[in-house]
């Protein structure tokens, strides 16, 4: 256990200034992942506590929903507008973790939580993500829960967030601030493929902070869902999950967005399946055709080959659920 | 309903208010905190340990290694820090002692150990051909044989031959193992959650060359144990005491959750080959059950896995074997329902398979094979309520409505399935002492050096004394978990209650007789001159005919210092009966046929286990046992990376156990059963039985729902895709 310097930020600007002045410092929000990581030996030396900053508003606006980075997961999932107009978000959160954790965990922290790969989470096992160059023990080890998309020889760990998958399907954008910068990026660009630098999960630069997440209103968002398959009924990460959003007009699919969790090193868009749906009639045949393409390009590991078929079936079930009455 | 009259937990108020002090909360002036340095690889020689950086840390007091730790004599358990050999990943190689727990852990991270890695066996299958026969399987013989099993199998009209596997489990009680060891000269005080205070006292006395009177072990409350706070905890317990002795200060050592996966035992992995030969009418002709299981490279333990196969059913030709494979992994030991838990998964699954093969109702098949005596021991049952359990369980569950064909029940999109299994667990008892005392104020004290694992021992001790003596339950105080008390049984093998019950009842009855004898002899007593058998005691009042006197008035005259009686109860050395508790468990599962997700929606258990002392506590034991069965069927598995020889899910986020959302409706039926022979006051154990058969009932229900027979636990969704 090493000494950690703890700073409590008084304002957003102060937090960003602290981050700029303390290279290597990390933000701590709900702390539900950060504290686990530090117990598991993945330790920052400087923590900047942002949990008290007023970045927790959930604001449904005319064209979009803006969620402060520090909004608690439970508050987002319980918000009546979210439940009505962005059901995939509410469902993804309701299927995440436990009530206690959802009461503490924040939206920003959820997106930036680190992988659940068991090798990463043990202080001294070979893992390129935790200790670059030490090797990836999961590739030829216990990889039942690992990724089939976006893997590299250096890392095959999944991104664990449920919410991120739903946000990807809803084409969210992420508002980011640095000490003297501000930018907006599509959520797909927030996450980095492991490549040969698996230690970097996100595209955030040093000292950058997520301030909010935005999703637009749309017919597709209103007809969206999140379906999670897991090894126990609750309090467990996805083996496979699917977020789906369909805009249907006169029985025809105008636009379709599909994203999957538990399968990719980053939240994974199912582009081939989306294409199969666009313009098709919203009927079982189209869903089956889309499902058939869901695992295109997947590269199974020794223990997770079943995820290909499970993903296809989950896609199909999610789509059927969106059009059932 | 009797449950309404059952006393609620004796220590409930202390526990909910936090007044109950668990051993993790006790402190001693001047104590040091210990942290373990553990080996990262499964097999190695330690070449050298550099402790300079650790020692340099302010607040670090000492680092013990095999080079400087006090010597303890060689023993049957793994003596830590005595030699430079690593047998499994996670084995302690150094112990850091510091003024604060934080410093101890920081210093532990600074200890530099150089290892020469050695070849390791990291999975059972790597050394299957080196399997060997252990000396015993639990408390039973390693192998058994009656009749001509191979010939009978070859001649049988119907045959079945399948392999069933169960994985490693860890006990993972909510409360971590912890010890505060405190020496005063050559007196050792040990405060630790212990399932066996007297065994721990004897073991520690042996280790440190002391008379047993010099050692005191205290364990008032346990946050669960399940087998992990007895012998399995002993190596680390010794280490804490050793450090305290060497440093001359009290030492507190507490395990981390991850260390609970390596240092306090495990349920061993099993591979079980089961062959059945039967006649067309279902009568069993041959049973052959060969089990292979993991043990460590330094110790030997075999669960009695095939024991249900020996006695559960009538069969003239039976052979069972237990073999072990040495793996560079932690030492297995008993975990709740040791042996019978995994063994009943294989046996009760195979019987189910036979039922489908013969197109017979699984209960009918079991009835036809009911054993009217224990054919393995060649003894009559002391009591056997199995047939009644089948009947009562089936009725409560609605089994009669079960369609015999798999894949026919459904609930919307989901497939439903019903399965059942038989359950058995031996009823043991060991010697126990107890003392009961009544004081001038009328309060009664029961003293018995057994332990309460959280299962209700306090309550039951108070209840037994209150009933046998004739005082209100609320008037009884209980002292347990201390080696200064009369020696009580260890808490394991479902035998503590059956062991102390006769001792407490006997002591309380002696006290009652003594009180009555004094009353009838006392000229000032209203009972004076009565025949003792005309005098009764109830609610703290003595009565004979229309005369009565509160006990406190009698005591004030005849024994102002109070009266005490003690008793000692020991089992028969040559039993004339075979003692078992029996049950039948029924499961309903809901399976998503596309996605493979399985949820248990109903569990019904019917049990015949002698006298039920407290239906509230007993029900909670059965429910707990069934939940372990759900975990065994669907969730629990300690995952070892074979390349590294390391456990990769050593935390409660990744080692799955059932959560609330996984709980079905539990329907528990405890049948009335007279147990006249065990000498336990009619009690048979109940802690293990709920876990027996349950995984099989669930797997059988999965087959009924889907037509898929899963023989490898835990059942994961990919097995059903
Ligand atoms: C037992 C368990 C089960 C779980 N199950 C699930 C599950 O099923 N599904 C799921 O999606 N999640 C699950 N989680 C993860 C949980 O949702 C995350 O831990 C939580 O969302 C993280 O949020 P936090 O506010 O606590 O983040 P913290 O722990 O405070 O921070 C997490 C990371 O985000 C960074 N960070 C936080 N806020 C910001 C910000 N505004 N800008 C930049 N960086 C920031 C921190 O520096 C840190 O790196 C589970 C967690 C546990 C412990
Ligand atoms: S998969 Fe990634 S996180 Fe897991 S061991 Fe390999 S490098 Fe580490």
Automatic annotation (TrEMBL), chain A:
GO terms for molecular function: FAD binding; oxidoreductase activity. The keyword Flavoprotein applies. Residues 1-220 form the FAD-binding PCMH-type domain. SUPFAM superfamilies: CO dehydrogenase flavoprotein C-terminal domain-like, FAD-binding/transporter-associated domain-like. The keyword Flavoprotein applies. Keywords: FAD, Flavoprotein. PANTHER family: OXIDOREDUCTASE, XANTHINE DEHYDROGENASE SUBUNIT C-RELATED. This is FAD-binding PCMH-type domain-containing protein. It comes from Reyranella soli. The lineage of its organism: Bacteria, Pseudomonadati, Pseudomonadota, Alphaproteobacteria, Hyphomicrobiales.
TrEMBL record, chain B:
InterPro entries: Ald_Oxase/Xan_DH_a/b, Ald_Oxase/Xan_DH_a/b_sf, Ald_Oxase/xanthine_DH-like, AldOxase/xan_DH_MoCoBD1, AldOxase/xan_DH_MoCoBD2, AldOxase/xan_DH_Mopterin-bd_sf. Transmembrane segments: none annotated. Keywords: Molybdenum, Oxidoreductase. SMART domains: Ald_Xan_dh_C (SM01008). The keyword Oxidoreductase applies. Residues 17-119 form the Aldehyde oxidase/xanthine dehydrogenase a/b hammerhead domain. It holds the Pfam family MoCoBD_2. GO terms for molecular function: iron ion binding; oxidoreductase activity. The keyword Transmembrane does not apply. Coiled coil: none annotated. PANTHER family: ALDEHYDE OXIDASE 1-RELATED (PTHR11908:SF132), XANTHINE DEHYDROGENASE (PTHR11908). This is Acylaldehyde oxidase.
């Amino acid at each position: 256990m090493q000494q950690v310097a703890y700073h409590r930020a008084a304002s957003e600007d102060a937090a960003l200034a602290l981050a700029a002045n303390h290279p290597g410092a990390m933000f701590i929000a709900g702390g539900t992942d950060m504290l686990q990581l530090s117990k598991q030996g993945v330790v920052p030396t400087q923590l900047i506590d942002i949990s008290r900053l007023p970045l927790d508003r959930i604001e449904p606006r005319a064209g979009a929903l803006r969620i402060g980075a520090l909004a608690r997961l439970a508050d987002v999932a319980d918000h009546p507008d979210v439940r009505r107009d962005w059901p995939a978000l509410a469902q993804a959160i309701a299927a995440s973790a436990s009530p206690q954790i959802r009461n503490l965990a924040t939206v920003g922290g959820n997106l930036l939580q680190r992988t659940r790969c068991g090798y990463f989470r043990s202080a001294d096992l070979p893992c390129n993500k935790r200790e670059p160059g030490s090797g990836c023990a999961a590739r030829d080890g216990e990889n039942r829960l690992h990724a089939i998309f976006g893997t590299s020889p250096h890392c095959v760990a999944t991104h664990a967030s449920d919410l991120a998958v739903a946000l990807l399907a809803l084409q969210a954008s992420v508002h980011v601030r640095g000490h003297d910068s501000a930018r907006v990026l599509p959520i797909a660009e927030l996450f980095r493929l492991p490549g040969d630098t698996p230690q970097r999960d996100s595209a955030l630069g040093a000292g950058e902070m997520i301030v909010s997440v935005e999703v637009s209103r749309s017919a597709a968002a209103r007809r969206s869902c999140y379906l999670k398959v897991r090894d126990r009924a609750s309090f467990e990460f996805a083996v496979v999950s699917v977020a789906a959003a369909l805009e249907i007009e006169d029985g025809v699919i105008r636009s379709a967005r599909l994203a999957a969790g538990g399968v990719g090193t980053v939240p994974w868009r199912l582009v081939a399946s989306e294409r199969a749906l666009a313009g098709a009639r919203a009927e079982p045949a189209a869903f089956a055709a889309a499902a058939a393409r869901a695992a295109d390009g997947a590269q199974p590991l020794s223990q997770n080959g079943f995820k290909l078929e499970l993903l296809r079936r989950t896609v199909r079930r999610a789509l059927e659920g969106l059009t059932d009455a | 309903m009797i449950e309404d009259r059952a006393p609620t937990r004796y220590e409930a108020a202390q526990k909910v208010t936090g007044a109950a002090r668990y051993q993790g909360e006790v402190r001693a002036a001047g104590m040091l905190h210990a942290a373990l340095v553990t080996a990262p690889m499964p097999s190695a020689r330690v070449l050298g340990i550099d402790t300079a950086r650790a020692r340099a840390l302010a607040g670090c007091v000492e680092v013990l290694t095999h080079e400087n730790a006090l010597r303890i004599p060689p023993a049957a358990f793994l003596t830590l820090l005595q030699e430079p050999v690593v047998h499994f990943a996670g084995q302690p190689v150094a112990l850091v002692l510091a003024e604060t727990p934080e410093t101890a852990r920081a210093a532990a991270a600074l200890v530099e150990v150089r290892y020469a890695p050695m070849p390791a066996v990291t999975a059972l299958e790597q050394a299957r051909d080196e399997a060997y026969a252990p000396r015993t399987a639990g408390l039973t013989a390693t192998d058994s044989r009656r009749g001509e099993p191979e010939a009978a199998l070859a001649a049988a009209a119907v045959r079945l031959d399948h392999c069933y596997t169960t994985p490693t489990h860890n006990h993972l009680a909510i409360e971590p193992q912890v010890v505060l060891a405190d020496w005063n000269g050559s007196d050792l005080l040990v405060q630790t959650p212990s399932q066996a205070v007297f065994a721990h006292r004897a073991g520690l006395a042996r280790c440190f060359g002391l008379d047993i009177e010099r050692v005191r072990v205290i364990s008032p409350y346990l946050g669960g144990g399940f087998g992990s706070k007895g012998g399995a905890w002993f190596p680390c317990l010794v280490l804490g005491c050793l450090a305290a002795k060497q440093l001359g200060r009290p030492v507190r050592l507490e395990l981390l959750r991850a260390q609970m996966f390596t240092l306090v035992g495990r349920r061993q992995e099993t591979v079980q080959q089961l062959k059945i030969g039967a006649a067309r009418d279902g009568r069993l002709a041959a049973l052959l059950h060969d089990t292979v299981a993991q043990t460590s490279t330094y110790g030997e333990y075999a669960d009695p896995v095939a024991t249900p196969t020996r006695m559960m059913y009538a069969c003239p030709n039976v052979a069972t074997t237990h073999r072990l494979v040495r793996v560079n992994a932690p030492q297995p030991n008993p975990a709740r329902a040791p042996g019978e838990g995994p063994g009943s998964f294989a046996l009760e699954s195979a019987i189910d398979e036979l039922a489908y093969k013969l197109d017979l109702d699984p209960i009918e098949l079991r009835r036809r094979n009911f054993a009217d005596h224990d054919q393995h021991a060649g003894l009559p049952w002391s009591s056997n309520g199995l047939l009644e359990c089948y009947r009562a369980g089936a009725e409560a569950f609605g089994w009669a409505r079960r369609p015999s064909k798999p894949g026919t029940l459904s609930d919307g999109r989901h497939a439903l399935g019903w399965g059942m299994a038989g359950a058995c667990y031996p009823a043991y008892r060991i010697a126990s002492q107890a003392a009961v005392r009544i004081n001038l104020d009328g309060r009664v004290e029961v003293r018995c050096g057994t332990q309460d694992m959280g299962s209700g021992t306090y309550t039951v001790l108070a209840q037994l004394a209150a009933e046998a003596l004739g005082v209100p339950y609320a008037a009884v105080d209980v002292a347990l978990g201390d080696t200064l008390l009369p020696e009580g049984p260890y808490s394991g093998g479902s035998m503590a209650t059956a062991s102390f019950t006769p001792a407490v009842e006997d002591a309380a009855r002696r006290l009652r007789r003594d009180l009555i004898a004094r009353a009838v002899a006392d000229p000032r007593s209203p009972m004076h001159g009565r025949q003792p058998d005309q005098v009764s005691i109830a609610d703290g009042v003595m009565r004979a005919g229309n005369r009565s006197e509160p006990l406190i008035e009698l005591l004030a005259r005849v024994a102002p210092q109070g009266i005490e009686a003690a008793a000692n109860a020991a089992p028969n050395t040559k039993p004339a009966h075979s003692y078992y508790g029996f049950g039948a468990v029924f499961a309903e599962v809901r399976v998503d046929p596309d996605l493979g997700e399985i949820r248990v929606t109903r569990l019904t258990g019917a049990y015949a286990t002698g006298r039920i002392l407290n239906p509230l506590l007993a029900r909670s034991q059965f429910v707990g046992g069934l939940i372990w069965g759900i975990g065994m069927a669907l969730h629990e598995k300690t995952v070892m990376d074979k390349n590294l020889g390391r456990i990769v899910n050593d935390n409660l986020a990744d080692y799955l156990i059932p959560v609330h959302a996984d709980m079905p409706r539990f329907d528990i039926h405890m049948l009335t059963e007279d147990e006249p022979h065990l000498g336990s006051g009619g009690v048979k154990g109940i802690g293990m039985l709920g876990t027996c058969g349950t995984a099989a009932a669930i797997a059988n229900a999965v087959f009924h729902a889907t037509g898929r027979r899963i023989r490898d636990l835990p059942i994961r969704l990919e097995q059903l895709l």
